Amino acid sequence: MNSSQIGIVPLNWRYDASRMGEYLSGIAKYGFKGIQISMDQGNSPEFVQSMKDHSLKFAEIYVAVHMTTDGIEAISELETAETIALAARVAVEMIVFAVDGTAERDLCATRAETGPQLTETAYSQLAEHINRFAKIAQSHGMKSSFHPHAATFIETFAETEKLMNLLDPELVGVCLDVGHWIVGGGDPIEAIQHFGERITHVHIKDVAGEVLTKLASGEIASMHDSVMDEKLFVPAGTGVLDLHGVMDALRAINFTGWLMSEQDSAWAPSEAASGISFVNILAALG
What we know:
- The protein contains 13 helices and 12 strands.
- It has 286 residues and is an alpha/beta fold.
- The chain has a single domain, classed as Alpha-Beta Barrel (TIM Barrel), CATH 3.20.20.150.
């Protein structure tokens, strides 16, 4: 692992197409080498050229699969196909699949067992969908991974393990978001040890312990409220995450993929939080 593979999912940045160059130069100046791009950005020739001008890589694109407990919603077929096609045009390195959030699971984040669960049919449909599109992605030279995500139907270790057993290991790795894994009740270091080389992509996200406790107790009503109003996620190295332990565990499995700094929301000045994360990630790399 090295600093050339530290990227960013810039959710805490205010993107404005009219200030595209300033946006990308700011990310590059902090030291990030790649970003998660959106569909709108990927469809903009100006944005694609500006990425190249700033020597930033198209590290990943996110595919949220819409589901009910009984199966995949029809819209996901078109949306996934369009996303994979765009990713191929701009040579995105990693397709990150996840299940889209639902209102019901948003209300029971950290207590997933109390909420609605996917049926066996739904698991089968989800796995078939991801395997099929991951194979298409592979044909274009792109890798794929699955991202367990709090407030979705795949949040916990048990849910993740069940789905990963249905996914082709030659096509789909694990995108371990260490922050969401903590919210879902897991230990990121144990997850790295368990999934081993199946982990091909990592989101580095830290968690505010006090906010997490309030979310788990029900004092904060929903995952959305905890993230947007209470800032559940904090700069890497400033919360409950054992950042150095995570890096040690990744070294032990010879991880060579992207380390994507991510903070869903941040107190102002929000962009500055990314600088703190970068410095602490770099320090943990040793």
